[in-house]
Amino acid sequence: MRARFEVRDRLALLDPAVDYQEIYRTTATVEFPWDVTRALELALYRTFAIPSIAALLDQTGEFRLRTQKRYDDTALLLAHALEAGLESAEGKAAVSRINRIHARFEISNDDYLYTLGTFVFVPLRWLDRWGWRPLLAVEREAAFRYYERLGTLMGIREIPASLREFEEWFDAYERDHVRYGEPQERTAAATRELFVSWFPGVLAPALRVGVNALLDGPIRSAFGFPAPPRWLPVAADLGLRGRARVERMLPPRARPASTQDSVLIKSYPNGHTLEDLGPTAAG
After folding, report:
1. Closest CA to 279 of 46, 51, 72, 37
2. For residue 187, which of 32, 195, 220, 254 sits 20 to 30 Å off, Cα-Cα?
3. First to last CA, the chain
4. Which residues of 97-131 are buried (b: 16+ CB within 10 A; e: fewer)?
5. No. of H helices and E strands in the chain?
């Protein structure tokens, strides 16, 4: 059992002001890869509840008409930057590709900042609730600093100076902006169907309700989704807590998980380049 916590103990000795990339990469790909991936899926999903974000996605049709490719491209671009490092040649090329994709659209700084916040706070809150061990303070700070650096490289302005300040801004932005609209519903429904498509068709009705169970009330309402049966969020919570207890007993991972090896990435069976990722018109 002692070996299960060796990575945690090593991370505790690092400085998140300097080692934030190593800490966050280890948290996301060694300690909690399944959880962070699921949480980042929900993070991206959560952005659809903001009317201005949903309207743009609905207008382009990318998340309705090419849902799997949009999922794959987003996951792979973020993975290239994380796995290689933001300051590496590959990481810089991935961020440059992200910036070129977004440059053709008018996106407010606040919407960029909110999306950045979902990548910080949705995974942190998921791990607080369902992680196999408590997060270290250095891991929380490293997550903030990693995305602060990514946001800076993307040209996002006025990023709050601390994790606490960013969380306050993030929660206030949701309170002020999350609301129902048809673009929100269409984009969320198309993405939910992608999640459902990864499993046998006979499970589809249960999975649609199951996705709803992982969303809080305001986000569900913004998508026009009905509330799940009262027992279902409780069952989902118990199931995820049970999974965490089992994972706590497993040996540590022998090597980091890579998004590029995921069976859920389906658009590039023969491999990809960074230029393959994103809409063709992005150049």
Report:
1. 72
2. 32
3. 50
4. bbeebeeeeeeeebbbbbbbbbbbbbbbebbeebb
5. 14, 0
Q: What is the DSSP letter of 135?
A: P
Q: In a structure prediction context, what are the per-residue pLDDT tens digits for the chain, which is 283 residues long?
A: 678 999 999 999 999 999 999 999 999 999 999 999 999 999 999 999 999 999 999 888 777 778 899 999 999 999 999 999 999 999 999 999 999 999 989 999 999 999 999 999 999 999 999 999 999 999 999 999 999 999 999 999 999 999 999 999 999 999 999 999 999 999 999 999 888 888 888 878 888 888 889 999 999 999 999 999 999 999 999 999 999 999 999 999 989 999 988 888 999 998 999 999 988 645 5
Place of tokens 């990481």: 91
The one-letter amino acid code at 92 reads: K
For the four alpha carbons of 17, 21, 22 and 25, in that order, the dihedral sign comes to: positive
Among the residues of 48-181, which ranges form H helices? Answer: 51-60, 62-65, 67-84, 89-103, 109-130, 137-153, 163-177
Token duo for residue 60: 């382009």
pTM of the model: 0.94
